[in-house]
Design a protein that fits this description.
Layout lengths: L1 H24 L21 E2 L5 E15 L11 H5 L7 E17 L2 E14 L50 E11 L2 E6 L28 E11 L2 E8 L8 E4 L5 H5 L5 E2 L8 E10 L2 E12 L16 E13 L8 E10 L13 E6 L8 E7 L1 E5 L6 E2 L1 E12 L4 E13 L2 H8 L2 H5 L10 E15 L2 E14 L4 E4 L10 E5 L2 E13 L1
Parallel strand pairs: 9-17, 16-24
Antiparallel strand pairs: 1-2, 2-3, 2-25, 3-4, 4-5, 5-6, 6-7, 7-8, 8-11, 9-10, 11-12, 12-13, 13-14, 14-19, 15-16, 17-18, 19-20, 20-21, 21-22, 22-25, 23-24
Length: 525
């Protein structure tokens, strides 16, 4: 009996040993594969990131375009070689661009946590740099300038490397940009997002043209810390602190540095901006309804200068706060057709000019044209935008602007639509600022024969037609007319203008026009 018991136990142990050895050679069972699932919480195009409760959406576009009558994408021919209207001006500028955006959202006990990132890669035609110098053995006024050698001999500038922004225009170059990058959580927006001051259409009520006056425009975003309260029924209110340095500060001119050549380029002295001390403070109320929306925005802008001289012992002017206010209205599905829209807005600023003249517009205008005046070489329109003007030892004189813009889009059918748009804006300097500019020695040197008045207006109108033969593929043509209505009159006797290749001569002071056409093909995905 004992031997039988020992035999059974021994056999059982042997079998267990063999089973364990065999089991060690068997493959381990794999985990179930986690497939990508559709996330329907936030609309079409979202998917769950495998293994998480976060939803992600990828999007973007590829764009090919060419603009006629401008040296930039997409602006008017307002200054430098663009405004010169001569052989230094580009007749066309081309660009290819790829945009990529990433949107993630996660539901939490505090609401949705969202991150958004939008970047672009592009290549743009290069533009001309430098100028033609005058023939002779001496440099201009005894000073070495672009286009002359140290001996004053002639140097002819062409396109050179042709680069724009250090990379675009080079044969294998290009540009990389970050448009938007922000986090949203519990009503807060933190990072680079469109300014809360802007209307939802930013600078595009019906257009592709980038330089429409008449309201705020920073579609590529500004760093900010924002809180938005939602009161329901489509009513929201927002307070925001946003960086002013990238998009919302214009020039602060110290007229003690004004020069004849500077005036010819649309500049009234040395730009004496100081370092940033305070962000712009923005408040906004919006009502979104089925009929459209209403928005009221205000902004406070700190104007801080540098020093009167080269070092801090020269002293400085005291800061002055400027401000801006804007109203915007949008009407949807108006009686002219399904999907038709009408967008309008108006703005008033004092010491905060960029809330009227968006970041794509220059601060200096110098546009040349023909003349019928006997004894004049050509005509020129001169204008300068600023937040404030001062002279050494003096205080800031804030610049006032006001304007409006609007656009109407009509859908002819599901494949074709046409937009009509327009804008107008005015820049006004106070009496003290005008005295500093017009009483300068530079104006005397230019031998102005008529009225000295740095005020100016800009009027704009345009039409755009879009064709969408298949979903998310659109071809468009946008024609724009811009008129610079400057308030100078008479003639000036100007020195050489190197940046525009213009000779020393008598010029008639006269309003000027810019005509541009943008042709674009864009595939969204």
């Amino acid at each position: 009996m004992l031997n039988l018991r020992s035999l059974v136990l021994g056999s059982t142990a042997g079998l267990l040993t063999v089973s364990a050895a065999v089991a060690a050679d068997l493959p381990v069972k794999a985990r179930a594969v986690e497939y990508v699932r559709v996330c329907s919480l936030y609309g079409a195009g979202f998917y769950y990131i495998p293994g998480t409760d976060t939803c992600i959406k990828l999007g973007g576009y590829l764009r090919a375009e060419v603009a006629l009558g401008t040296i930039s994408m997409y602006n008017g021919a307002f200054n430098s070689v663009g405004g010169s209207q001569n052989r230094l001006s580009n007749y066309y500028t081309a660009r290819a661009r790829e945009d990529l955006n990433i949107d993630t959202r996660t539901a939490t006990e505090y609401g949705v946590v969202r991150t958004y990132f939008d970047a672009v890669y592009h290549w743009t035609t290069g533009s001309y740099v430098g100028s033609n110098s005058a023939t002779g053995a001496t440099a201009y006024s005894g000073t070495l300038v672009a286009g002359t050698s140290a001996t004053g001999s002639t140097t002819l500038y062409g396109s050179g490397s042709g680069n724009v922004n250090n990379t675009d225009g080079n044969t294998s170059g290009g540009g990389l940009g970050v448009y938007l990058a922000f986090i949203q959580f519990a009503g807060f927006t933190m990072g680079k997002a469109v300014s809360q001051f802007d209307a939802p259409w930013t600078g595009y009520p019906a257009n592709n043209f980038d330089s429409l006056v008449g309201g705020g425009a920073d579609p590529t975003g500004v760093n900010q810390f924002t809180y938005t309260a939602d009161f329901g029924q489509g009513v929201t209110a927002t307070v925001s602190a946003q960086d002013q340095t990238a998009y919302f500060q214009s020039a602060i001119w110290n007229t003690s540095g004004i020069s004849p050549s500077g005036i010819m380029g649309g500049s009234y002295g040395a730009n004496t901006l100081g370092g940033s001390r305070a962000p712009d403070l923005v408040g906004m109320v919006r009502v979104d309804q089925a009929w459209g929306l209403f928005q009221a925005s205000v902004a406070a802008h700190d104007n801080q200068t540098g020093y009167y001289g080269a070092t801090e012992v020269a002293g400085h002017a005291a800061d002055k706060w400027g401000w801006a206010a804007q109203l915007a209205l949008s009407f949807k599905n108006i009686p002219t057709g399904a999907g038709d829209t009408l967008n309008v807005q108006g703005v008033y600023t004092n010491g905060a000019s960029r809330y009227n003249f968006g970041y794509n517009l220059p601060a200096s205008f110098s546009m040349f044209g023909s003349t019928g005046l006997a004894g004049a070489y050509q005509s020129v329109a001169i204008a300068g935008l600023s937040d404030a003007v001062l002279a050494t030892g003096g205080s800031l004189q804030l610049t006032t602007t006001y304007g409006f813009r609007g656009g109407y889009t009509h859908n002819w059918n599901p494949y074709w639509n046409t937009g009509l748009y327009g804008a107008w804006a005015a820049v006004r300097y106070n009496g003290t600022a005008k005295g500093l500019i017009c009483g300068s020695a530079a104006i005397t040197t230019l031998a102005l024969t008529g009225t000295c008045n740095p005020d100016f207006n800009i009027g704009q109108a345009g039409v755009i037609t879009r064709w969408t033969p298949v979903k998310n593929l659109t071809f468009s043509g946008d024609f724009n007319w811009t008129r610079l209505d400057q308030k100078y009159s008479g003639t000036i006797t100007a020195p050489v203008t190197p940046a525009a290749g213009k000779p020393a001569a008598v010029y008639e002071l006269k309003d000027q026009n810019s005509l541009t056409l943008l042709l674009r093909a864009q595939r969204n995905w």
